[in-house]
Amino acid sequence: MKFAPSLLAADFGRLLEEAQAVSPFADYLHWDVMDGHFVPNLTFGPVVVNALRDRVSVPFDIHLMITDPQQYAPQFKVRPGDLISFHVEAVSDPIRVIETVRSTGARAGIALRPKTPLSAIERLLDQIDFLLIMSVEPGFAGQSFLVETLDKIRHAKELIHKKGLSVEVEVDGGVNAHNIKEIARAGADIIVTASAIFGDKDPRTALAQLRALVIS
Ligand code: DX5
Ligand code: ZN
Fold first, then answer.
1. List of residues 6+ apart from 131 with CB closer than 8 A
2. Tell me, what's the pLDDT at 215?
3. Which residues are 65's β-sheet partners?
4. Cβ of 193 below 6 Å from ligand 1
5. Is the CB–ligand 1 distance for residue 203 below 6 Å?
6. Which ligand is nearest to the CA of 43?
7. Domain 2-215 is of which CATH architecture?
8. Which of 13, 23, 169, 186 is 20 to 30 A distant from 52 in Cα terms?
9. pTM, to two decimals
10. Rounded Cα–Cα distance for residues 7 and 19 (Å)
11. pLDDT (tens digit, 9 = 90+) per residue, 59-113?
């Protein structure tokens, strides 16, 4: 299983330091881009993410919780292997946005709010590299994992398997040391965690401990 620590619970005054502290031990660095419109919170955009791009070696995982990913996705400086996801609820022509994301060189993912059913994206599964399943309402770190997500993860994995695809399933929100094993067993390929890593006084050790839980 891969780990994508989310900077949403990091100290924004020490963003570079926080990113560099975990990046040697992470598979991705997760960026929660919010526009105050698709979600009721504002974070950072391309200016901030791009400023750190060449100073952090781990692949970036850019989660766009914004109304207009078609306009803003091309503004991110990406490297091959980086991920960009956008919310299917935000757009009317997801195929066009997938093409735009791919044109940046990033791998393309679709994100789903907790209440959006898999049927909303079933026809798009063969068009994407990964599916981001939100296990909290998007907008804020530190919320509780919605247990009904476990069935959604299992169902997504079944659909992907049935279609013979290699789409990865990313799970985002409320993951911690108490529930990570169950989430791994349900089939998550990539885990996002903000509070469980950056809420700890020693983010590196917190990440190592989470990893150990899913290996053992
Ligand atoms: C929520 C974000 C998540 C969030 C997870 O809108 O998409 O990535 O940072 O935070 P925790 O791990 O604290 O639930
Ligand atoms: Zn996220």
1. 109, 110, 111, 112, 121, 125, 156, 160, 167, 168, 169, 170
2. 86
3. 34
4. yes
5. no
6. 1
7. Alpha-Beta Barrel (3.20)
8. 169
9. 0.98
10. 7
11. 999 999 999 999 999 999 999 999 999 999 999 999 999 999 999 999 999 999 9
